[in-house]
Predict the structure.
Amino acid sequence: MRLRGLLHTIIRHGLPCFSVLMVLVALTLSGGHSLAAVTLQAATPTPDLDWQLTVKHIDLQSKTPDFTVTISQPVLQSTGASSGGKADAFNTAVDAFVASAQADLKSGLTDTTGAPPGSSSSLHIDYNVLASNKGFISVQFLIDQFIAGAAHPLHNIYSINYNLNTGKVLTLADLFKPKADYLTPIAKFVSAELKRENRLSFPDGTLPKAENYGVWNMTHGGLLFSFTDYQVGPYAQGESVVFVPYSALGDIFNDDYFFAV
């Protein structure tokens, strides 16, 4: 479904009220931040955890070539005496993603022939925290890029799921027991949901392959899978998201990571 249609899915699957609030806020907030310089803005920490998130805003403008960049990115700070730099890998992963997105924009600026006079390229990145519980943090990034002269903007979604307890970025496989066939039930649920909503034009995009389910987020009731332009449908369809309740996947979860039952 489109992001704005997620409320119906959340209610239908009976997520707790906190999850409804977190996911709705996360999937509806977007927009640019125009600042004269890179700044930090404090975010509200979770009271019972020794960490906090701050927001780093980046605003860049160029006339030759003509482009603007507006980025909001999270910065994780672990404040406990035993934190031992466990936030470092999160911040490194975020920095690498942001640098890659900017490099991708600049590579597209090498050929803007046919661009109307006065047109400008742009990159906008915002993020949403979809879960922050027991040292687990799940962040969804929304990317909008436009290259002057292109037929339309490009929309993309990226995610980072992080275990502050171990200081490691999580893979989807980490959530499940060793050798568990987790992709098959996920693909079955996702395909059925997209077919039900008549949003599955490209079935190959939901086959049980790791690359098809690389953009995912933990929430307090299930896993949220995101599918960007052209993966499961044409550009005009826009991005799709499917919420998969933990209960739909049975007992294949790794107890170390299954925190949100």
Q: What stands out?
A: Residues 1-48 have pLDDT under 50 and may be disordered. The chain has two domains: 31-170, 171-261. Residues 31-170 form a domain with the Heat Shock Protein 90 fold (CATH 3.30.565.40).
